Amino acid sequence: MGPRIGPVGKELQMPNKHMKAMVDTEDAPGGKCSPNPQDLRPSVFHSIKFFILCHSFLQLAQLMISGYLKSSISTVEKRFGLSSQTSGLLAAFNEVGNTALIVFVSYFGSRVHRPRLIGYGAILVTLAGVLMTVPHFISEPYRYDHTSSVDMPQDLEASLCLPATDTPTSAPSNSSCSGYTEVQHLTMVGIMFMAQTLLGVGSVPIQPFGISYIDDFAHNSNSPLYLGILFAVTTMGPGMAYGLGSLMLRLYVDIDRMPEGGISLTSKDPRWVGAWWLGFLISAGAVALAAIPYFFFPKEMPKEGHELHFWRKGLAVSEAPVNKGEDSSSEQNSGENPEKDGLAQIAPDLTVTQFIKVFPRVLLRTLRHPIFLLVVLSQVCMSSMVAGMATFLPKFLERQFSITASYANLLIGCLTIPLAIVGIVVGGILVKRLRLGPMRCGTLCLLGTLSGLLFSLPLFFMGCSTHQIAGIYHQPDAQPGLELFPGCMEPCSCPSDDFNPVCDTSTGVEYLTPCHAGCTRVVQEAPDKRQVFYANCSCVAGGGPVPAGSCDSTCSHLVLPFMILVSLGAALASVTHTPSFMLILRGVKKEDKTLAVGIQFMLQRVLAWMPSPVIHGSAIDTTCVYWAQSCGRRAVCRYYDHNLLRNRFLGLQFFFKTGSLACFTLILAILRQQNKEEGTKETIPSPGLQQQLLDSGPKKEPEESRV
User: Fold this and answer.
1) Of 260, 264, 342, 562, which has the fewest Cβ atoms less than 10 A away?
2) CB within 8 A of 402, min separation 6: which ones?
3) Across the beta sheet with 521-523, what order do the strands follow?
4) In the predicted model, is pLDDT for residue 387 greater than 80?
5) How many CB atoms lie within 10 A of CB 680?
6) What's the pTM value of the predicted model, to 2 decimals?
7) Residue 535, strand partner residues
8) pLDDT for 620-678, tens place per residue?
9) DSSP secondary-structure letter at 184?
10) Cis bond leading into 545, ω under 30°?
11) SS3 for 533?
């Protein structure tokens, strides 16, 4: 907030200006200053800086619990047999409850206790995080080989090539499909969807109320920097989610109920499932701790004084210049005209029915301005790109470069997220220090988007084709695989729904199971007995042995250059975040500020965060070449066409970036046209001109064109 007030004796020796600054800064909301020295001591809960600190931690924890599902999306797919489209819908389902309430909550923000409502929302987020872990505890232990997980030798030998008369034990994999099994599966998936909905409802008041609370009680010249810091710290939430996912997915999913003989899997095995549920418990605890201070913040706090950030120079400035630096919406909302078109002023007097009748008119009034609409559309395009990338980039890296889910999350959390934070901070500092007007903010957004688009072009060429998979995928330019040993697996009775891949490293051919490779014997050569080898393989030259697990990608070395380009593009795109947000926040009238933020978040959720993961998941599913079957239904995809996967996934990213670039181009064209029109009307003052959205005044007066 500012320097703490010292002993009373010293305060009485202060000059009048210092005393006035103290009273203006630390008075109670009612405007009365108590002579009691204990009352003069400022409370930490009346400091906007402390609120920013608390809100940064809360949004960090809230986005950590929201982003954790994205970091473990491929693991959840394998554990519960979900397609990418279904997992994308699950990741986007938290926006359903959020979208249904965010506009109403934002519009009625002036009539509620905003900090307290933020605390209640955080409690709901905590409950949602705990609910997400329930499917793990009510489900049976994970069986990666469709057999009993107690008898280790039986597990290893279940996928061997055995004569047809010796394989009656393969039937239980199909007989396990019962009505109870399907009901249990639907129940677990339904619980996760309910938890995601509750997570969205709890997140409704957190960001809009926090942003509007900061902007209402922070000084106008400091608000861009504060919001830049808030966004930067908040962005660490997804980064910590990916880091947490990297740690948790190294642990086996049933770490709380391990079989007696242990497991014969490594984290590189495609059947490996990490402890996805454990991260939700940790994130929920962090949100619960962050919710506590919000029950002690006041409904209103004193407006931050100009003196606190300009120090001595600020003490010499009179009140008139301080008000002069405020945006035009604040000048228009000085209370001189109570019958203005500020509908939010009478919102506390409206019932819900009356608000529903009036809301369309207010919504149209807000969307009618082309700059506001185009900025929101550009953010929608950028959010669509971010939503798809955040949800499926770990899975894309796993498939494209043959890396583990833990390592993929580590790369995103250590490279992409930190550079995005740097971009957001740079954008906030540029707006603060250079006092960028609307025209220059639009230019900055255009350059950042264009640079990010250029960095994404080389990504289309950084990858390789799917390796050869016997009986499933054959590379056109590769040498024959199974054709070298025709009929090598005919004596075997291989289950169609089993999945225990082995790789012939000499030819680069992968087989679904040791049975499909004609292997009849298990050899454990690794010291830790977690790496399994199979021998006497009739489909393999020399008979093996062959290691369990998928074949490594031939372009694994490209994963670091790929992530560096992705991270640089994310940093450049993040520079546009604060300038574009300030175009909206400073462009609307003060009484419509909360509503404008709510409309912005509503459109981002409806048009970006809800459909984008489903769109990306559907596009990924179209590149699948082999689906696993579970009780007659299509479950998780086992193999993808890597070239199609890369082109379609990155093609969607390129499409959304191009849309954002087009919106910023139109914004600059409209702003340039407005400047030309204002130049022709310099000699004709227009009192209604200040009410125009993003009206920057004459171009020769930079102080009024300040964002």
Assistant:
1) 260
2) 550, 551, 552, 553, 556
3) 521-523, 533-535, 546-547
4) yes
5) 8
6) 0.77
7) 521
8) 999 998 888 877 778 889 899 999 999 999 999 999 999 999 999 998 888 888 778 77
9) H
10) yes
11) strand
